[in-house]
Write a structure and sequence with these properties.
By secondary structure, the chain is of the alpha+beta class. The chain contains 5 helices and 7 strands; from the N terminus they run βαβββαβαβααβ. The protein is globular and about 40 Å long. The chain starts with 5 loop residues before the first strand and ends with a strand.
Length: 142
């Protein structure tokens, strides 16, 4: 049996697919593809991605995990997250909106805002959507 998808570092040729996926989720595009790992199907088409940013405290922050809608339910997001966790040993993030149940299922636990570095959390401070978004700091360790 052939694997449904494989992981690799994002390349510039992936940018259009990444921007489409980000746009579908209402997110801004990336200035850089640094820290972006993509899941690709047999045709090397992007079906999901994770972006990891290293904070000034040296910790790995997920920002974000996105899976193309037709690929949800196939374990793409879990595989991307587990691979990043294996690489970094701990992942931190701010779950927003409907993403919290995914992170709960993945074993992330709520944590204090003090564990989230400035640069990850400041978009939440003055956001007019804060009540609807319900941002929640979370982390998972091996």
């Amino acid at each position: 049996m052939t694997a449904l998808f494989t992981l690799r570092s994002a390349a510039e040729l992936d940018r259009q697919a990444l921007e489409l996926m980000l746009g579908m989720e209402g997110m801004d595009t990336f200035d850089s593809l640094e820290g972006v790992t993509v899941a690709v199907n047999e045709a090397d088409e992007v079906v999901g991605f994770i972006r990891i940013a290293i904070g000034e405290n040296g910790k790995a922050y997920v920002n974000p995990v996105v899976v193309f809608p037709t690929w949800r339910g196939y374990g793409v997001g879990s595989f991307l997250t587990d691979a990043a966790l294996a690489q970094y040993g701990e992942l931190r993030l701010v779950s927003r909106g409907a993403s919290k149940p995914f992170y709960d299922k993945m074993g992330f636990q709520c944590c204090d805002w003090s564990l989230i570095v400035h640069g990850v959390s400041e978009d939440c401070d003055n956001c007019s959507w804060r009540e609807e978004c319900r941002p929640q700091p979370m982390r998972r360790m091996l």
